[in-house]
Write a structure and sequence with these properties.
Blueprint lengths: L6 E5 L5 E5 L6 E4 L2 H19 L18
Antiparallel strand pairs: 1-2, 2-3
Length: 70
């Protein structure tokens, strides 16, 4: 069965892209390019699904990202 997850992508101080799948605990990876990041995050998601099984919070719906100044 095909499943879809939202990937949050950030860029760190060294220029690496960091991808995180919020619905899968511990599911994150990094890469120098976005293309490589997407390949790696798919691999990481498959591994996390294999480990977590059916205990995935699929009821989370991505709404958006907001920046605040403090």
């Amino acid at each position: 069965m095909r499943r879809e997850f939202t990937v949050v992508i950030e860029k760190d101080e060294d220029g690496y892209f960091v991808g995180t799948v919020l619905q899968l605990k511990g599911c994150h990876t990094q890469a120098k390019s976005l293309d490589t990041l997407m390949k790696r995050i798919k691999e990481a998601a498959l591994l996390c699904l294999e480990v977590e099984g059916k205990e995935v919070e699929e009821d989370l719906e991505f709404v958006g990202v907001q920046r605040i100044a403090v």
